């Protein structure tokens, strides 16, 4: 078995995780730790949650929050535009840090992955004329 699929929900975050079962909890732990740091930033800077424009916020060195701030500045949106991708990256880093050889993390279409052999990512197209669409990584 290459990996197993897990469905993880924590508050607003809904993640599909593909990894070996022994590593699943490292993703959950990493996401909970990140949520705690993110909630603290929002407590200290409430506009972080609601701003539609880039912000300059002290984030105490958290690389993922800094990544959200940097990305939002580049495309001129608020930092929460990058929150799904940040959670996906956090989960992937947690998995890799604890020794997972490969994993895929999908948070609402924001995908972080590290794979040893090709994987095909399907794209849901609803009722569109184009069906069975995907890309191989």
Q: Could you characterize the architecture of this molecule?
A:
With 137 residues, this protein is α+β, with helices and mostly antiparallel strands. It is built from four helices and six strands. It has a four-stranded antiparallel beta sheet, with helices on one face. A two-stranded antiparallel sheet has the order 5-6. A hairpin with a 2-residue loop joins strand 1 (4-10) and strand 2. Helix 3 (63-75) packs antiparallel against helix 4. The radius of gyration is 16 Å and the shape is globular. The mean pLDDT is 93.
Keywords:
alpha+beta; two-stranded antiparallel ribbon; four-stranded antiparallel sheet; 6 strands; 4 helices; 137 residues; 23% strand
| Largest sheet composition | 4 strands, antiparallel
The tally of strands reads 6
Round the Cα radius of gyration to an integer and report it. 16 Å
Strand content: 15-25%
Helix-strand sequence: EEHHHHEEEE
**What's the assembly state of these chains?**
single chain
Described by the principal axes of the CA atoms, the overall outline is globular
What distance separates the N and C termini? 19 Å
The main sheet orders its strands as 1-2-3-4
Any low-confidence stretches, pLDDT <50, length ≥5?
Answer: none
What's the helical proportion of residues? 25-40%
* Overall pLDDT metric: 93
Q: Count the helices. How many? A: 4
Class from secondary-structure proportions:
alpha+beta
